[in-house]
Amino acid sequence: MERNAGKFRMIDITQKNDVFREAVAVGKIRLKPETVQMIKDTRVEKGDPLAAAEIASVMAAKSTSQLIPLCHPIPITSVVAHSTLGRDTIEVEVSVKTTAKTGVEMEALVAVATYLLTVWDMVKRHEKDSMGQYPSTIIESIKVKSKTKGP
Questions:
Q1: Domains in the chain, ordered, with CATH?
Q2: What is the structure's pLDDT at 53?
Q3: What is the sign of the dihedral through the CA atoms of 33, 38, 44 and 47?
Q4: Residue 50 in 3-state DSSP?
Q5: CA triplet 26, 54, 115: central angle to 5 degrees?
Q6: Residues of the chain with pLDDT under 70
Q7: Which residue in the list 12, 18, 121, 129 is annotated as catalytic?
Q8: CA-CA to 108 of 20 to 30 Å: which in 38, 58, 83, 98?
Q9: Is the pTM of this model over 0.85?
Q10: What pLDDT is stored for residue 8 in this prediction?
């Protein structure tokens, strides 16, 4: 088997046509029930974690090609985040759309990860234990839920 060790290249998509594409990604953060209640009651000192995370997810989707090596820059036409709060979880679903030569799966995944990381950052002081650790805080289940290609 021949291998291009140490060599990387962007996939050539020059000959592909622009096509409508959408990817939906999902993920979840597990928090202390008290922290989720603080979010529901809008009592987080830094501000609204969900609003900040929504803006962060849009910025992340638009910046994906700057973060992931060899990922094509594409025109993002829509980013929509929707969250659901449970007793000790926040689940987010992010839809990313484009009309381009390549898909938006990576943009949707980066948007979800950034959304969840932003929530963590906004509430981290409430998640720490007495040793400054995060024993119950976890980001999990980030995946592509669906992708669409075509008219």
A1: 19-149 (3.30.70.640)
A2: 98
A3: positive
A4: helix
A5: 50
A6: 1-6
A7: 121
A8: 38
A9: yes
A10: 83
